[in-house]
Automatic annotation (TrEMBL):
Domain of life according to the entry: Bacteria
The entry's keywords: ATP-binding, Nucleotide-binding
Protein name: HTH luxR-type domain-containing protein
HTH luxR-type domain ranges (all copies): 868-933
Transmembrane portions of the chain: none
Species of provenance: Actinoallomurus vinaceus
Record PANTHER family: TESTICULAR SOLUBLE ADENYLYL CYCLASE, TRANSCRIPTIONAL ACTIVATOR DOMAIN
Keyword Metal-binding carried by entry: no
Cross-referenced PROSITE patterns: HTH_LUXR_1, HTH_LUXR_2
Pfam families named among the record's database cross-references: AAA_16 (PF13191), GerE (PF00196)
CDD domains: LuxR_C_like
Length: 934
């Protein structure tokens, strides 16, 4: 069998068919059978708009080009049923049966089948024949019976059959025919929606450029429907909504083309009034809906909906999911909803919201999302219902609660009695989801209004937390102190103010004040709630950790987890803090176990500034295990999960993981992109360690790009900070060795000694943490050029990348000591090379290979494999890496610097890459790399 191309392309009337490799392969085999004098049957199932008709047209053209006699017909939906359609239309209409009139219908059936068979046999005598019949769902039972009869009768003739039908979720005569033919040996395929790669290719074909992410997002709303997708893309192009710049297609206007709306409206107009009524109501419910909800709104039963649902299925408007029905794609849903007049939409949303509120707590969030679109200003009763919904939604989905609260406030006049309470609620949830500017504006608006004593205290507690998150810790401390100065403050508000004061003191760097205040709280637990006790324990744990008292820090973090019994206390994320500390000291299994319950807390309780925490910690765990690509994916997802929330507390940690992982994976371009990303000026939970960690990996990147001199100032500062704040040395096991190595390269032995002394103290104080001791040994071995110390580090590190790094340091030291230690040096470097290679650390492996070459040893850096002679799969690992870097826009010199080879070697690889990929320019290579990378 010939190799199937990576995609199938065939032009018919200006259209392009893609993403049907499996079916096209079967069509090719079918045509091969016909040319060899054999028969065959290929069956194609698919929903409306899946591209069946295009496939049949392409197949007919291919058959004609191969010398086939082609006959094509289709079932007809409208008009009186005609027996033997579509066979009669395929073979010349009624002329085939003109002549002797039948006496009885049964005799006529047999006679017509005989004449049709004779016609096909006569054509087959002159060469192979393809019979292509579309839309068999509309064919009558007589025609379907004739198809099976003729396919059996002509089994020895070179007649091939390509039959297509539209699938539905009910039994049909055409479906039964397909089952019988499959049982007789026919090959059967179902054409589903186009996958993402095919959608991308179609977009590139229609638009004439590589589609950007915005184009692909909009194209994805077509749900892989080829006809709708083509209409959408062509419409965007015709209406000037897409611009092609440097071969890339970008949206310049986000709107649906008129032809797409017309296409969907035509589909809607093809159904009956009752089905259209169902679809309109269902579209207001949502993209998916429960049949019982639609039935209740329509005042009927789910059973009564079956004929309408069946018609919507047959027209390709609805599909069935495991639990609900759904519109086939977003475009059909959006346009169907838009056909409902705005006043009716609003009334339906109100009706749906009231209906769902009666379903209990689990339906509160969807009910609220409808109410927000159905309530009018001044509707006090409805707004009171929305207030209740917001209160219930806050613990489950703060982001949704923020939208509901701000909408409720917009519908409330400033003079209404409920306005202050709704404003306070809005400030609370806006702060929780990171919409700090909006929260600050509302808080300022309340400052000028007369408030009750309770509302006044509540406002200033909220302002304290808000100011702290905005980086104004001193003002936050003043607000919290002012609240605590009042008499008769309710306990929950007093606890909230105490907690705000703790956070503010940490924000201004007053560690002594934090410890004194937290100690007072913990020593008087009877007078405080779990929220405040948990927060104080966390602050004490972090203070101990920063001071290098690791055992005490872990003990207090575990105690905070134990005390966090309420949802509010869990909102301080003690499990997340504990998992972070356990990751620092490489107790990775325990950290993963703690993360099992911590992730859910981060998503459902507390401030969403912590929503990225589970992903960041999982990324750190992956990085510690040498899974660099997984670490990047987790950290990227973590940042994306809070991208719309404004500043959040773990940005620096996430970016530090991204820089470290991409640097170790050898992609300096991506690492620099992350290092230069815009970050809010916030410390992580009041601690400077996250910023220090980020500055550490940024300095490592600068040294990797431009050498030690490029990071001299940063290295000096990091050495000073690491000696005073041990968190950086604990959190990354190679931090201390890297600082020592770089300081020595800069001739700054004094700062190297400070780092080693700090690590020695940590190791002496914490013998229970093995990796701390190994890191100290590694750093001391570099400072003292101690072979035995480096050898122990290379053997004992749990972190695989750190182990390879220590082996490289050992090999480098031995190589520098002269010919007498050459054999041992090669052994150390080989161990480092094996470690880096196993992790996919291509840049580090390349650096070690260069060191080995200087010792006269050349190690292969590719693996033999059974590769094709052309195409992306034919590239070696090195060629693929060169291609990826060139596709990022790097010059040959820049690629050479990243891969530790000469620019001439890069040019040599590029020549081979161009030949294998059959491209002639870097632009063509970039486009192909984008398609393959997808």
């Amino acid at each position: 069998m010939a190799i199937v191309p990576s995609y199938v392309e065939a032009a018919v009337d200006g259209k392009v068919m893609r993403g049907r490799e499996h079916v096209w392969n079967a069509v090719t085999n079918l045509l091969g059978a016909g040319r060899a004098g054999r028969s065959g049957v290929l069956l194609v199932d698919g929903e409306a708009g899946a591209g069946k008709s295009l496939l049949l047209a392409v197949a007919a053209r291919a058959a004609a080009e191969r010398g086939f006699s082609t006959v094509a017909g289709e079932g007809r939906e409208f008009g009186p049923p005609t027996s033997f359609e579509p066979l009669l239309s395929a073979l010349g209409g009624r002329d085939v049966v003109d002549g002797e009139g039948p006496v009885r219908w049964a005799y006529e059936q047999s006679w017509i089948v005989e004449r049709l068979g004779s016609e096909l046999e006569e054509r087959a005598g002159a060469g192979p024949v393809m019979v292509s019949l579309d839309d068999l769902q509309w064919a009558d039972p007589v025609a379907l019976t004739a198809i099976r009869t003729l396919s059996r009768r002509l089994a020895a003739a070179p007649v091939v059959w390509l039959l297509a039908r539209r699938t539905t979720d009910r039994a049909t005569d055409a479906g039964r025919l397909f089952d019988l033919l499959e049982r007789d040996g026919a090959v059967r395929f179902t054409i589903g929606p186009l996958d993402h790669a095919a959608v991308r290719q179609v977009a590139a074909d229609v638009l004439g450029g590589v589609p950007g992410a915005d184009v692909l997002r909009l194209a994805g709303e077509a749900g892989g429907d080829p006809a709708l997708l083509t209409e959408l893309l062509s419409g965007l192009l015709d209406e000037g909504a897409v611009r092609i710049v440097d071969g890339h297609a970008r949206l310049v206007a986000v709107r649906l083309p008129g032809r797409v709306e017309d296409d969907v409206r035509r589909r809607l107009d093809a159904v009956g009034p009752a089905t259209r009524h169902l679809l309109s109501v269902a579209a207001i419910i949502g993209r998916s809906f429960a049949p019982e909800d639609a039935a209740e709104l329509l005042g009927t039963t789910p059973a009564a909906l079956l004929p309408w649902i069946d018609e919507a299925f047959s027209r390709g408007l609805l599909v069935a999911g495991p639990d609900e029905l759904a519109f086939r794609n977003d475009l059909v849903w959006r346009i169907t909803a838009a056909t409902v007049p705005a006043p009716v939409r609003r009334a339906l949303h109100r009706q749906i919201g009231d209906l769902l509120l009666g379903r209990g707590r689990t339906a509160v969030l969807p009910a609220a999302s409808h109410l927000i679109r159905g309530i009018r200003a001044g509707d006090a009763r409805a707004l009171a219902v929305l207030d209740r919904a917001i209160a219930e939604v806050i613990p489950a989905s703060p982001r949704a609660a923020a939208d509901l609260a701000t909408h409720a406030l917009r519908l409330t006049g400033p003079r209404e009695p409920a306005w202050p309470a709704r404003t306070l609620t809005a400030i609370h949830v806006l702060t929780a989801v990171g919409r700090l500017e909006e929260a600050a504006e509302l808080a300022d608006s309340l400052l000028t209004r007369p408030l009750s004593h309770a509302s006044y205290l509540r406002l200033h507690c909220l302002r304290a937390g808000l100011l702290q998150l905005r980086g104004r810790a001193a003002e936050a401390a003043a607000e919290a102190t002012a609240v605590l100065a009042h008499q008769g403050v309710p306990r929950d508000l007093r606890d909230e103010a105490e907690l705000a004061l703790l956070d503010a003191l940490a924000g201004v760097g007053d560690d002594a004040g934090v410890r004194a205040h937290a100690d007072r709280i913990v020593s008087a637990t009877a007078g405080h709630g779990d929220l405040l006790i948990t927060g104080a324990l966390i602050r004490l744990a972090l203070s101990d950790w920063e001071a290098g008292r690791l055992t005490d820090g872990l003990r207090l973090a575990r105690e905070a987890v134990r005390r966090a019994r309420s949802a509010e206390a869990r909102g301080r994320h003690p499990r997340m803090i504990l998992a972070m500390l356990l990751t620092d000291v490489r107790r990775l299994d325990e950290a993963r176990a703690v993360m099992g319950s911590a992730a859910e807390d981060a998503e459902t309780t507390g401030n969403l500034a912590w929503a990225a925490a589970p992903g960041v910690i999982r990324a750190r765990l992956d990085l510690a295990g040498g899974r660099f690509h997984e670490a990047v994916a987790e950290a990227e997802a973590a940042l994306a999960s809070t991208r719309d929330l404004g500043p959040h507390l773990l940005t620096s940690s996430a970016l530090a993981v991204l820089v470290a992982a991409t640097l170790r994976a050898g992609d300096l371009t991506a690492a620099w992109r992350y290092a230069e990303a815009e970050r809010p000026a916030l410390s992580q939970y009041g601690s400077p360690h996250a910023e220090a960690g980020f500055h550490l990996v940024r300095a490592q990147l600068a040294v990797a790009r431009d050498g030690p001199a490029a990071a001299e100032e940063a290295v000096v500062r990091l050495c000073d900070e690491a000696a005073a704040n041990c968190w950086t040395l604990v959190g990354e096991p190679t931090a201390a060795p890297w600082l020592v190595r770089t300081a020595l390269a800069l001739g700054d032995r004094a700062h190297a000694e400070r780092v080693v002394a700090a690590m020695d103290r940590l190791a002496a104080d914490h013998p229970v943490f093995a990796d701390v001791g190994v890191t100290a040994t590694h750093a001391r071995g570099l400072l003292d050029r101690d072979r035995a110390a480096l050898r122990r580090a290379a053997e004992r590190y749990a972190d695989p990348w750190a182990r390879a790094s220590a082996a490289e340091d050992l090999g480098g030291l031995l190589a520098a000591d002269g010919p007498g230690t050459r054999r041992e040096a090669i052994g150390g470097l080989d161990a480092a090379l094996a470690g880096y290679s196993a992790l996919g650390a291509v840049r580090d492996a390349a650096r070690v290979r260069r060191r080995l070459r200087r010792l006269g040893i050349r190690r292969r850096h590719w693996s033999r494999a059974d590769r094709p002679v052309s195409g992306w799969a034919s590239l070696t690992d090195t060629e693929r890496r060169v291609a990826e870097l060139v596709a990022q826009g790097l010059t040959n010199r820049e690629v050479a610097d990243q891969l530790f080879m000469s620019a001439h070697t890069v040019a040599f690889h590029l020549r081979h890459i161009f030949r294998k990929l059959e491209v002639a320019s870097r632009v063509q290579l970039t486009r192909l790399a984008v398609e393959v990378g997808d």
